[in-house]
Amino acid sequence: QVQLVESGGGLVQPGGSLRLSCAASGSISSINAMGWYRQAPGKQRELVASIASEGSTNYADSVKGRFTISRDNAKNTVYLQMNSLKPEDTAVYYCNADEVAGTAWPGYLEVWGQGTLVTVSS
Q: What values do phi and psi take at 9, rounded to 5?
């Protein structure tokens, strides 16, 4: 019904930058919140940043001032610009779309992407 396709992960040196993208496809009418979560080896998945449909944002303390989340509602796409990357940012990053309304299903869906690996290492 709805797919989230992520791109932009990879290997980067400490201090470097990466931009993640996540595009939602399907018979979508609207998406409330979109966000990025990450899971490092041996750790629980945690919220990195989220953005509501009207543009309000929320960030984990560990990424404030370094990461910026944005979205293009017309394209159902969310971005995560990651600057000043640190080795502790290494994780699989997952895109999330919450309260997805569509023409092919009743109510709302919550959808996750397949994850993209970000490795910060010299």
A: -75, 175
